[in-house]
Each structure stands twice: as structure tokens, then as C-alpha cells.
């Protein structure tokens, strides 16, 4: 596997799982489609197959600072398109292009190119898990100039910025829609492709804990696990490891945590990370520790990235729609999990967030 950061990855995707079971037989448009709970009209899927059928080269993009759903959905789809004979390149538009360490185990990373190597005007672009062109970072410009753009996403806030929308806010993850596309293309699910889709499903359902975890989600998980992937190894890669410096940065973040009425929040300036050489992406799980606070309804973590911008992660237990609050602050997301980016100070960001939260509380 090519490691974008140049560091050796500790798990070779070829070694995830014992023995390589045969690929499942392809399930094409004529075969039975697995249930997904999705409400995307058949005509939209047919148009997607038509656009893909006509394209020789397909550029794939997912949102910046990709998570398991964004990168997993993109790499799974890309591997299938390549197996079908398409020229495929995949990328994401971060200025510092590097796959986050916790996603190094995902197979199919040889599809990845830096954003500068993506054609300026792709014939066909497919975007994954991105609710707006902004979320595509540097690749927003390529998307605007692409001849056709298929947008595959599950954010309610998606602006429908493509020439074809495969958008369904009812599904738990973009990976659900990627699997549907793969089946419709007549592709087969081998263990590597299933590993990518499973990473998306397990990330966005919080390991099958969130309310988005429907019977169809478990049925999809069963199909994926049946390919022989190792759920234990994937879980360890995603959540159960970090460099030692993370503990130190975590300790400082927890030391400055505040509880104000029903809001619990903290922040991590980049100097904290610099002291231990800790990459920004290692902070992804911090919000999950902060949001466990019984006394709080809403949790927020402000993380200063390597460019000095504050990336704000927010979570709600259900009564407050943090998606709307973050959208009002220029970001987006879902009812219970959302985020935004700000160049202001911690004090100003929190003042703006508190004001919107007070309004939302009033309406609840
Ligand atoms: P995170 O807190 O980074 O795990 O993100 C939670 C949710 O908020 C995800 O669905 C993201 O797509 C969305 N989100 C996070 N940051 C932003 C942002 N800067 N702009 C728009 N949406 C965001
Ligand atoms: Mn995502
Ligand atoms: Mn997602």
C-alpha cells in the first residue's frame, strides 16, 4: 500500500482478515438489490449508470480532512470502477494532502493522487460525503468546471451542487449509497471493497450506536462481514490506538473543559499538538470523550488546524439541532453531529455559538 505520508502503515490491507474468500458473485441491474432504505428514484440511478458508462476517465473527490465514510465510500467505488475498465483517479482537496493515520489501513489507496493532479475540467466527477462545494476544498474548482458531476451524499444540508444528485438524508452513511451504486454497476464486493464500505458504515453510525442504525444498516454490515473482513482489526485501527502524545494533548484539553448550563466544551490550540508532533487528524475522537458528559445536552470541541483556522466539532443528544446552528455559522452537518470552520478567536467563536444555542433552546 502506498502511504501518502511516507510513514509505514502498521497494518497492510492485504493482511486484514485470514485467508481470502472468493469475491461474491456480481449482482447486476438484473439481480436482486439489497435493501438500503434509500428513497433515491430509480431514474436517478439509471442516469448515473448512463453517465458512468459514457465516461472513459472518472475523477472522484471526497470532503477535506476525510473521515471513514468519505474516504471509504470513494475508494470502494473507485476500485469497482477501475475493475470495470475505467480510468479512475481519486483525491481530496486538502492543502496538505495526506491520508489521516487512522485511515491508512483502507485498501485501494493506489487510486489516490494529490489534488493538483486532478484534471481542471474532468469529463465526469463524482463527489462523496460532501454537502457543499466548499467541503471539497481545492477540488471545489475542478467540480465547478466538470462537464458532469454526480453528488453522492447523505447530508440533509446538501445543496445539490451537481448535475445529478444521489442524495438521501435518510441513510446512515454515504457508504450505503456507494454500495447501492456498486451493485447497480454489476460490481462485486470483495473483502477489500467491503472493508472500505464497512469503515464508512461503522464510522457514521458510531459503531452501530446512533439512531441512524436501522435494520438495513445491520443487513448491510452482514453482507460486508460475510466477505471475511476483520471487524476487530478495523475497530482497533479506527478507535483504539493513538500516539503517546495524544494522551498529553487530551489531558490538557480535559483540564480546560467547561460546563455552562447544558453546554460542555473545550479547545485545543495547535501549540499543544506541536509540543508532541501530534497531527491534527488525531483529534477526531476527542469530541466523543467530551460529549459523554451527563449534565450537557450539547458538546463542542474547537481544534486549531495547521493553518491557524479553528475547526469546530459539535454534538447534540437530540433536543438541539446543531446542524442548523453550524449552518448559520457557515458550516453544516446533521441534527446531532455538525461542524464549522472559523478564523476568529476562541472567545468570539464561543460567543457566536452560545447566542445561537440560546435561540435554539428557546425554540425547543
Ligand atoms: P466532525 O465533527 O468533524 O466529525 O463533523 C461532524 C459533521 O459535521 C460531519 O457530518 C461533517 O460533514 C460536518 N462538518 C464538520 N465540519 C464542517 C465544516 N467546516 N463545514 C461543513 N460541515 C462540517
Ligand atoms: Mn464525512
Ligand atoms: Mn457521512
What does this structure look like?
A hairpin with a 5-residue loop joins strand 8 and strand 9. The protein is globular and about 55 Å long. The strands form two sheets. It has a six-stranded mixed sheet, with helices on both faces. It is an alpha/beta fold and 364 residues long. The protein starts with 41 loop residues before the first helix and ends with a helix. The chain is built from twelve helices and eleven strands. The structure holds adenosine monophosphate and manganese (II) ion (2 copies).
Q: Cα distance, first to last residue?
A: 49 Å
- The class by helix and strand makeup works out as alpha/beta
Instruction: Write down how many β-strands occur, each being a DSSP E stretch of 2 or more residues.
Output: 11
- Shape descriptor: globular
Order of helices and strands: HEHEEHEEHHHHHEEHHEEHEEH
Major sheet: arrangement of strands: 6-7-8-9-11-10
Q: Report the sheet with the most strands, covering strand number, pairing sense and barrel closure.
A: 6 strands, mixed
The total of helices stands at 12
Helical amount among residues, as a percent range?
Answer: 25-40%
Query: Which stretches of 5+ consecutive residues score pLDDT under 50?
Result: 1-30
Overall mean confidence score, pLDDT: 92
Amino acid at each position: 500500500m502506498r502511504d501518502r505520508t511516507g510513514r509505514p502503515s502498521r497494518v497492510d490491507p492485504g493482511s486484514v482478515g485470514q485467508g481470502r474468500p472468493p469475491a461474491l458473485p456480481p449482482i447486476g441491474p438484473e439481480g436482486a438489490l439489497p435493501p438500503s432504505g434509500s428513497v433515491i428514484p430509480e431514474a436517478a440511478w439509471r442516469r448515473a449508470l448512463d453517465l458512468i458508462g459514457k465516461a472513459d476517465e472518472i475523477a472522484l473527490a471526497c470532503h477535506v480532512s476525510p473521515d471513514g465514510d468519505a474516504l471509504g465510500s470513494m475508494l470502494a467505488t473507485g476500485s469497482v470502477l477501475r475493475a470495470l475498465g475505467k480510468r479512475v483517479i481519486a483525491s481530496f482537496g486538502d492543502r496538505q494532502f495526506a491520508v489521516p493515520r487512522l485511515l491508512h489501513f483502507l485498501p485501494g489507496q493506489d487510486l489516490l493522487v494529490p489534488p493538483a493532479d486532478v484534471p481542471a475540467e474532468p469529463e465526469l466527477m463524482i463527489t462523496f460525503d460532501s454537502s457543499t462545494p466548499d467541503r471539497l476544498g481545492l477540488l471545489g474548482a475542478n467540480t465547478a468546471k466538470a462537464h458532469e458531476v454526480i453528488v453522492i451524499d447523505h447530508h440533509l444540508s446538501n445543496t445539490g451542487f451537481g448535475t445529478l444528485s444521489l442524495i438521501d438524508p435518510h441513510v446512515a452513511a454515504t457508504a450505503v449509497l456507494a454500495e447501492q451504486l456498486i451493485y447497480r454497476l454489476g460490481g462485486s464486493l470483495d473483502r477489500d471493497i467491503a472493508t472500505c464500505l464497512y469503515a464508512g458504515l461503522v464510522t457514521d453510525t458510531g459503531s452501530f450506536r446512533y439512531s441512524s442504525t436501522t435494520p438495513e444498516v445491520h443487513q448491510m454490515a452482514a453482507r460486508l462481514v460475510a466477505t471475511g473482513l476483520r471487524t476487530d482489526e478495523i475497530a482497533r485501527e479506527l478507535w483504539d490506538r493513538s500516539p503517546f502524545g495524544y494522551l498529553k494533548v487530551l489531558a490538557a484539553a480535559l483540564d480546560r473543559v467547561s460546563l455552562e448550563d447544558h453546554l460542555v466544551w473545550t479547545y485545543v490550540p495547535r501549540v499543544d499538538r506541536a509540543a508532541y508532533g501530534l497531527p491534527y487528524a488525531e483529534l477526531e475522537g476527542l469530541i466523543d470523550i467530551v460529549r459523554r458528559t451527563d449534565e450537557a445536552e450539547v458538546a463542542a470541541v474547537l481544534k486549531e488546524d495547521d493553518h491557524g483556522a479553528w475547526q469546530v466539532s459539535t454534538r447534540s443528544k437530540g433536543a438541539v439541532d446543531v446542524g442548523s446552528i453550524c449552518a448559520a455559522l457557515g458550516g453544516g452537518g446533521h441534527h446531532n453531529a455538525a461542524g464549522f470552520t472559523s478564523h476568529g478567536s476562541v472567545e468570539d467563536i464561543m460567543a457566536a455559538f452560545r447566542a445561537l444555542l440560546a435561540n435554539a433552546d428557546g425554540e425547543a
